[in-house]
Amino acid sequence: MRRLRQVESAAVVDVVDEKFPARAPVGSWHLEVLRLQPLLIELVALLSLTGVAALAFGRGLRAGTVFDEGVYLASLDALEHGQKLGSEVFASQAPGFYALLETERAIFGGSVVAMRVAMLVLALVGCIAAYYVGRCIAGPLGGFLAMALMATSSSVENEAVRVRADMPSVALSLMAIAGALFAAKRRGGAGLLAAMFAGGALAAAISVKLLAVAAVVPVLAIVLRGPGRPLAAALGAGAGGVVAALVAFDASVLGPLWNDVVRFHLKAESAHIYGAPTDFRGNVAKVVGAVAGFHGLLSPFPWLVLVGGAGTLLAWRRRQLLAALPLWLWATASGAILVLHKPLWAHDVVPLSVSLAVASGLGIATLMVQSRLVPRVVAAGCVLLVAVTIAHDVQQTTGGESPGIKWAATVLRTRTPPGSEVVSDLPIIPFLADRRQPGTLVDTSWTRLGSGWLTEAEVLRTIDRHHVSAVIVGHNFAGYPTLLRALRIRFPVILRRERVSLPGEGRVEVRIYLPADSRSVGAALDHSS
Question: What angle in degrees, to the nearest 10, is found between the helix axes of 67-80 and 112-152?
């Protein structure tokens, strides 16, 4: 009987279990949500800050093009139409930069805005890498401040979307540092793969712009502090793979590339280049001015760097934030290279601005978590200053391409045969007019002319050899009277436009030299000039 009751009870329990299945503990789901909530908040904050950086950087998408952008866009156009880098197209930068440009063109398109969008994407990747670097060393707050200070620097903001090598090389450098930090925190295959990635990114950064060699210092400092030989070997393997790929791709023109990338710059170091500092003191002033920005000491960025540096020193006294040392070594190496580099231009200073921004962001983050009130108040003031600066910058507008540049492009389109070659010391004009340029003359910069690497005789020989249909003078050619006299003989029809504004260079007169048979074409354009 007792056995029967036990069986009946078990049956009742089974029926109840079928109608009312067992539930998970009520608190477990809430605990899972609470565990993920900080990560979700951090992700939303990261995406929001990335969007703000995109707005700040993206203001320059339709700004007027600077001289260097015209050089690189014309070089890319020449490569697209079959000319060979090094042997036919002068290489103003290391070959990795042109590989990057060709990749961006294939993905985004070849217009000015499309190429700038590609640069913007790469700049945002660099910002996210800066966030990861800061997070690894000083937590989420350090990551956000490192990223935000990048958007506060006027030199970074001005160069973020420019079709130049500076920002891409810095973004790749940040990716290399981020990969090195990941490798140092992992064991086994994941760490080795991260070290290989760091080496590849570092080699790619240097192949884009040689000044990125300063990033070798922080990457090695991080890797050698970890397990040592295995990570160093993986780092070397990654770098070697990128170098081998570039050498294999450009094997037939290594000699000309060496001349353009190395020998040319070595010769330019000893020449007096118009617009560049001539001595060590001039370089120091140029570096300080570029880092501080247009308003000098009235700009917020140098003061943020000062507070970040002070916060780092205070943390080091307590033997905290020692992992930030490689970032300050990066800034030191960048600064040392820049003050010795000749000729030095303002855009060359971007690596120093970025390294200072990331390192200083971590220093400010440590002040935020101090037990004393004064450091926390100072850090909170810095955060407010960063927010106000970015909000102010986002609201600023930038002018588009100069009407004079558009006029010159229109003249070329109407006065020269489609697909014909033209020569210009403002290479953006033929690019906008969809006209080809001889690859040897895509770069007619002060550096190339002032160093003697490009001579007036070579310019005239190229003009005659390529039977160009027009020559545009509005920049560096204007300072060579002998060249101008020779052009007037070859191209007697001259259209002029005065007070054409060039970004960062004031106003110039643009002259378009055309052959005699163009007199009967487009008389209305003569009156408009």
Answer: 140
